[in-house]
Amino acid sequence: MDSDIYGLPSHEKDKFQALLRFNPYVNEIFFANNVILVEGDTEVIALKLIGEKLVSNGDLERIYNRTSVVNCAGKGTMYVVLNVLNNIGIEYTCIHDFDITELNKKGETQTVAALKKVLTLNNKIERLCDIKGNKKFVFQYTLEEEMPPDYEKGSSKSFAAYEYLQEKELEEIPVRLLNIVKSSYGIRLDHELDHSNSTVLE
């Protein structure tokens, strides 16, 4: 695919072309009835496993098999994918980590500059979603932080999520996580989620 038609800066074109080349599942975006964009493999596993449970429970029907849950390999690349989808008119739901935490992934205190960088990217993603009226949900910190105390991360985040969630009944899954998944698949909640950045920061 030639991303020149999307008018992206060259560095963003490169990111999108790399994503298409090394993650063939991204191409499903262009043929799916429902598109859910996430940051990584762990989120893909969580969305699909919980989706299967919703199907078994009778809460979710055909749309599950027509949904593409795509790993965007981080928020930086997700921002590029949103640009592309907005330009060609494909509707989507975006889910990402809010990432406003005291410590970074190395266990070090986050600097003001680092937090500002995170907020800037979060705001850019929100604006892109809002332009076309697409849904956006966030994990308040990360997906792992949405899990209850008995969740063990393990050496592989993806496998840990799979191992934990496959054993759980729907009623055992954290409500906030379950509601994000339900909303992403188009299941209406009694109270619709408001995950605007201003609300999450409160």
Please provide a brief summary of the model.
With 202 residues, the chain is of the alpha/beta class. The chain contains 8 helices and 4 strands. The longest helix has 20 residues, at 112-131.
Explain what you see.
The protein is 46% helix and 10% strand. It has 202 residues and is α/β, with parallel strands linked by helices. The protein has one domain (3-201): 3-Layer(aba) Sandwich (Rossmann fold), CATH 3.40.50. It has a four-stranded parallel β-sheet with strand order 2-1-3-4, with helices on both faces.
How are the secondary structure elements laid out?
Blueprint (H helix, E strand, L loop, with lengths): L9 H13 L11 E5 L2 H16 L10 E5 L3 H14 L4 E5 L14 H20 L3 E5 L3 H4 L10 H10 L8 H10 L12 H5 L1
Parallel strand pairs: 1-2, 1-3, 3-4
Helix pairs in contact: 2-6, 3-4
